[in-house]
Specification:
7-stranded parallel beta sheet; globular; NAD(P)-bd_dom_sf; lyase; 3-stranded mixed beta sheet; EC 4.2.1.46; 350 residues; alpha/beta; dTDP-glucose 4,6-dehydratase activity; binds nicotinamide-adenine-dinucleotide
């Protein structure tokens, strides 16, 4: 039995990871530490509500006493740190909380893991700290080329800068203490349980409600889209078999301009749900400050070393995603109304 401390496991990617792992393995226990900020939603975890291998703890990754208690109580083998403030636009308005959660929270987790795992002659057997990072730490690309693991970090937004700061602290724990760590840097995820402040669920929600579809600048910023389940699979592989001290880039081979995404969502909803939804809903708005032009990832290292590749093409993934939101309209309503808090009562606690 392996015990994971998953942080941020009530958020978008974290909850997908918890569900993926508990479905895939019988010999995995997950202690899920999440502060339940506006982005954390226990309704995402209702399928594992009765599962004794999932222990939910509401709390802050910056809380040294609590994290220490979790290490003592549950004999943690792996930490997978998803917990973060994750929205670039919010980071432009409120940078402090990004520095606090993303940098100081990571340092607290590293430190508590070190205290629990360090032995006189090295480290407890089989332990690993894994940091979930982002391709945004590399900055912005021109029309050609890809981010490699060796690309120097050049973050621009307070969000990406805080994630880069966290990555450097993880590296420091490897370089200084030889702590067994790995980092993955992934491109934009999409899929079920995505909070509707992010592009794809926002578009779907707004289309269904006949609201404007805001598009930054000229709409030609490019992102590389990764289906969330492919990301979960990559993290699982890196935690188990990735080389200690290494960074692995995870990308979807699915580069699209923002306006292409907008038009794809409109077309699917127009053709399948509501023919009154048209491109007339598109509204170009003032560009985001410091908006990175293009992100692109070459996931060659993870493919060569671990055999991972993105199984879900964008054409398949986007239809699956839109269909999921159509089938889970109540989820969207609950998330946007704050109703989801009622699920809290039913979850396991320490
Ligand atoms: N979504 C993407 O496309 C993407 C891409 C690259 C990297 N990432 C990284 O993946 C991770 C997860 O992203 P996401 O999109 O699922 O984010 P999210 O915003 O949906 O979820 C974040 C979760 O962390 C929790 N949290 C926030 N502060 C906390 C704290 N102090 N203590 C404990 N829990 C806290 C929130 O309650 C929430 O459940 C983040 O580290 C993010 O930087 C995301």
């Amino acid at each position: 039995m392996k015990t994971y401390l998953v942080t941020g496991g009530a958020g978008f990617i974290g909850s997908n990871f918890v569900l993926y792992m508990l479905k895939k393995y019988n010999d995995v226990k997950i202690v899920n530490l999440d502060k339940l900020t506006y982005a954390g939603n226990l309704e995402n975890l209702k399928d594992v509500q009765e599962n004794p291998k999932h222990i939910f703890v509401q709390g802050d990754i910056c809380d040294k006493e609590l994290v220490t208690e979790l290490f003592d109580k549950y004999d943690i083998d792996y930490v997978v740190n998803f917990a973060a403030e994750s929205h670039v636009d919010r980071s432009i308005k409120e940078p402090e909380i990004f520095a606090s959660t993303n940098v100081l929270g990571t340092v607290n987790l590293l430190n508590c893991a070190k205290n629990a795992w360090e032995r006189e002659n090295g480290w407890k057997d089989g332990v690993r700290y894994h940091q979930v990072s982002t391709d945004e730490v590399y900055g912005s690309l021109g029309d050609t080329g890809y981010f490699m693991e060796t690309t120097p970090l050049d973050p621009h937004s307070p969000y990406s800068s805080s994630k880069a700061g966290a990555d450097f602290m993880v590296k420091a724990y490897f370089d200084t203490f030889n702590m067994p760590v790995t980092i993955t840097r992934c491109s934009n995820n999409y899929g079920p349980y995505h909070f509707p402040e992010k592009l794809i669920p926002l578009l779907i929600n707004n289309c269904l409600n006949h609201k404007d579809l805001p598009v930054y600048g000229d709409g030609l910023n490019i992102r590389d889209w990764l289906y969330v389940e492919d990301h979960c699979k990559a993290i699982d592989m890196v935690v188990r078999d990735g080389r200690v001290g290494e960074v692995y880039n995870v990308g979807g081979h699915n580069e699209r301009t923002n306006i292409q995404i907008v038009k794809t969502v409109i077309k699917h909803i127009h053709d399948n749900v509501d023919e009154t939804v048209t491109e007339d809903l598109i509204k170009y708005v003032e560009d985001r400050k410091g908006h990175d032009r293009r992100y692109g990832i070459a996931p060659d290292k993870i493919k060569e070393e671990l055999g991972w590749y993105p199984e879900t093409t964008f054409e398949v993934g986007i239809v699956k995603t839109i269909e999921w939101y159509l089938e889970n309209r109540q989820w969207m309503e609950n998330v946007t109304s704050g109703e989801y808090q009622k699920y809290y009562e039913k979850m396991y606690t320490v």
